[in-house]
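Hey, I'm writing a tutorial for new members on how sequence and structure tokens pair up, and I'd like a real worked example in the thread rather than a made-up one. If someone can provide the structure for the chain below, I'll link this post from the tutorial.
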Amino acid sequence: MLAWHVRSKHKRVKKREKKAAEKVTPAEQLNKTIEAIGILKGLQVSPNLSEEEKKILGDVSKTIEQLLAYTQSSK
């Protein structure tokens, strides 16, 4: 009985730890988004891309920036 109790308690603790680790704070999400925008802008200046590919990257980065601005203004 004691062993069962210890195992079940351990499982609950592990589940809580896993759920806590999965949660991303808004500040971390903001940093990741800004980093993604920077990567996209860096790719845009790559000499190996065609103009069409650069335009697509530009559109994607603008969309992400707009979403970021929207989420920041809605808080």
